[in-house]
Amino acid sequence: MNVEVILNDVAIETTNFRQELLQRNGKARHKINFDFKVKSEQSHKITTLLYKNDFTVKVPTKGLKFEATIYNYSTSIIDLTVEGAVSDFKLELIEKV
User: Pfam family example for this protein (predicted)?
Assistant: First the structure.
């Protein structure tokens, strides 16, 4: 199922979207996981966004909005300096305390 995730006003079409609530120190925190593709022409914008590691997360179809940081991420090994290249990103975000 494709789900749109908005990170700091940048809309990302995702696949394999999953959400859960984690209990930490008596407080429930949202954690979301998803996959998305990044084309070479988008790589600078996306990597700069992720480097900030400080996000306002919105998932309109799930009614979610929260502040988050990266819990885990990975990318496939693709040289995004090559025109037309596409890399697979996996991203996990967790709500800030």
Answer: DUF3219
How far apart, in whole angstroms, are the C-alpha atoms of residue 59 and residue 43?
22
Domain boundaries, given as residue ranges, for the chain:
3-95
Strand, helix or coil at 3?
Answer: strand
Dump pLDDT digits (tens) for 1-40: 799 999 999 999 999 999 999 997 888 999 999 999 999 8
Cβ-Cβ contacts under 8 Å for 23 (sequence gap 6 or more) = 29
Fold observed for domain 3-95: Elongation Factor Tu (Ef-tu); domain 3 (2.40.30)
Residue pair 26/68 in contact (Cβ under 8 Å)? The answer is: no
Tokens of 85: 């290249």
